[in-house]
C-alpha cells in the first residue's frame, strides 16, 4: 500500500509540474510574441487556463497526500488526547465520503458535457477531457482518505508550525 501511495504521489506531482510548466511557457510565449513580434499565440491564454485547472486540481491530490489541508482547530481540545487517533480515522472516513459524493457530482457534470459535445470557445477543443481532472482529483483524494482510515501509519503527520 505504501508503494502504491508513493507511486501515485510521484505521478500526480509529475503531471502537476508539467501543467505548471505549460502554463508558464504559454504565458511567457504570449508575452514574447506580443512584445517582440507584435503578434499573439492563438488560444494560448485559454490553453494556459486549462493547464492551470489541471495543476490546481492535482494540487488537491498532493495536499491530501501530504495531509496538509487547512482544517479547523478550534475543537482540538474538546476530547481527550487518547481519542485523537480514532477521531482522526473518523475524519478520514467522513472526508472520503465527501470526496466520493463530489466525485459522483463531478462525474455527472463531465458526462453531461461529453453528451452535449461542449467545446471551449476560441480553440474549439472538447471540454470534457479538461473537466475530467475534477473527477479524478476527488476520487483520488477519496482513495487516499480510505487508505489513511484503514492504515493510519501511512498518513503523514501534518506540519502544524504556527506563524504569527
Summarize the structure.
With 164 residues, this protein is mostly helical. The protein contains 4 helices and no strands.
Task: Please tag this protein with its features.
single chain; 164 residues; 70% helix
Can you describe what's shown?
This protein is an all-alpha fold and 164 residues long. It has four helices and no strands. Helix 3 packs antiparallel against helix 4. The model has no long low-confidence stretch (mean pLDDT 90).
Helical amount among residues, as a percent range? over 70%
- Helix and strand sequence: HHHH
* Uncertain ranges: none
Number of strands: 0
Radius of gyration: 20 Å
List the helices and strands and how they pair.
Layout: H1 2-37, H2 44-66, H3 84-116, H4 128-150
Helix pairs in contact: 1-2, 2-4, 3-4
Amino acid at each position: 500500500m505504501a508503494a502504491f501511495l508513493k507511486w501515485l504521489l510521484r505521478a500526480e506531482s509529475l503531471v502537476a509540474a508539467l501543467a505548471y510548466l505549460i502554463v508558464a511557457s504559454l504565458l511567457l510565449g504570449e508575452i514574447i510574441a506580443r512584445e517582440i513580434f507584435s503578434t499573439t499565440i492563438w488560444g494560448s491564454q485559454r490553453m494556459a487556463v486549462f493547464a492551470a485547472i489541471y495543476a490546481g486540481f492535482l494540487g488537491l491530490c498532493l495536499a491530501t497526500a501530504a495531509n496538509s489541508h487547512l482544517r479547523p482547530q478550534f475543537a482540538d481540545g474538546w476530547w481527550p488526547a487518547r481519542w485523537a487517533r480514532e477521531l482522526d480515522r473518523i475524519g478520514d472516513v467522513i472526508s472520503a465520503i465527501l470526496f466520493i459524493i463530489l466525485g459522483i457530482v463531478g462525474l455527472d457534470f463531465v458526462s453531461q458535457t461529453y453528451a452535449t459535445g461542449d467545446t471551449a470557445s476560441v480553440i474549439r477543443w472538447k471540454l470534457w477531457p479538461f473537466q475530467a481532472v475534477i473527477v479524478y482529483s476527488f476520487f483520488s483524494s477519496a482513495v487516499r482518505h480510505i487508505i489513511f482510515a484503514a492504515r493510519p501509519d501511512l498518513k503523514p503527520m501534518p506540519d502544524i508550525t504556527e506563524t504569527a
